[in-house]
Automatic annotation (TrEMBL):
PANTHER family: GLUTATHIONE SYNTHETASE (PTHR39217:SF1), PTHR39217. SUPFAM superfamilies: Glutathione synthetase ATP-binding domain-like. This is ATP-grasp domain-containing protein. It comes from Ruania alkalisoli. One of its GO terms (molecular function) is ATP binding.
Length: 317
């Protein structure tokens, strides 16, 4: 069953210049929205000719260049009426320091050590901040996917030396650096991603390990998702993480309505799944992997238009 806003509603699907026609996974959304009496235009976020005020809803999709233009993107997001997900969510989610807030709240997350540029680490200081055993990953706190990430072996002298250089280069470029324990479950089971529309679980998928190389720490394979049947424990873990975000993101509260779309990436780990990331900006939703998932996504966006602005989504820029 579809839900329709007032006739003549207009929606913008926002992408980047490298994908001016949307990612192929999102292309069927245009027809699904048309079936709900919503006209959708595909627009590039940093196109200066676009008048965003004429749209009833502006939806972030494949804006995959935002990490390299963070300040410009955040400024743009704060200026757009009726952006989803909204600017306060974008600001909170763009920097992975939110994982520390999840951990402080008692939620299971991937073990992370933070290296801040202002700390002035020398090579020995970096060496002492790395794990003493097992594999670990280094990546910037502001990045998309495996961008800027490398996998290293703690007990291999050459690998450790490469890790020091990697962290040093990121810090010198002004990045906060994450040092994360590499969880072997990623190799044995893969990562899983759960998609929610307005807080309701839609579908899940899994992918194999992205960082594949020890000989080449920056080697990674192309993300290939497959359908996955999430367990009750995995769905509950994802819902707990989203509930925390709903209550703690500045400008939101537990009384605010759930986000139109959200993706939670988990690693299965015994009985307690571990949160790897919350993807609330422009996650790949892979609706083709969930039965009727594209219809649910379109319903969520049409309902968002019909409900009007959420008073809890306050822009604090």
């Amino acid at each position: 069953m579809t839900t329709s806003p007032d006739a003549g509603a207009r929606l913008a699907l926002v992408t980047c210049s490298a994908l001016p026609d949307l990612h192929p996974e999102d292309a069927p959304l245009i027809e699904a929205l048309a079936e709900r009496e919503v006209s959708a235009d595909v627009l590039v976020w940093d196109d200066p000719e676009v008048d965003w005020s004429v749209y009833d809803l502006v939806v972030l999709r494949s804006v995959w260049d935002y990490t390299s233009q963070r300040k410009k993107f955040l400024s743009w997001a704060g200026s757009v009426p009726r952006l989803v997900n909204p600017p306060n969510v974008v600001r909170w989610n763009i920097d992975k320091h939110y994982l520390q807030a999840l951990e402080d709240h008692g939620l299971p997350v991937v073990q992370t050590t933070w290296l801040e540029p202002e700390a002035g680490y020398d090579k020995r200081g970096l060496h002492n901040r790395f794990p003493a055993r097992e594999d670990f990953v280094i990546k910037p706190a502001v990045a998309a996917g495996s961008e800027g990430a490398g996998r290293y072996t703690a007990t291999d002298a050459n690998s450790r030396r490469y890790a020091i250089e990697h962290a040093k280069n990121l810090i010198e470029a002004g990045h906060s650096v994450m040092v994360q324990r590499y969880m072997p479950e990623v190799d044995s089971h893969g990562e899983i991603a759960l998609v929610f529309f307005h807080g309701t679980f839609s579908h899940a998928m899994r992918k194999d390990a992205m960082l594949t190389g020890i000989d080449d720490p920056n080697a990674f394979q192309v993300e290939e998702m497959e359908a996955y049947k999430a367990t009750h424990a995995e769905i509950e873990a994802a819902q707990r993480a989203l509930a925390f975000a709903r209550a703690r993101i500045p400008g939101r509260s537990i009384s605010s309505r759930p986000l139109p779309y959200a993706r939670v990436d988990l690693i299965p780990s015994g009985r307690t799944p571990v949160v790897m990331e919350l993807e609330l900006i422009d996650p790949a939703l892979h609706c083709s992997l969930g039965r009727d998932a594209m219809a649910r996504f379109a319903d969520s966006l049409a309902a968002e238009i019909r409900m009007g602005p959420d008073s809890n989504n306050i822009d604090l820029a």
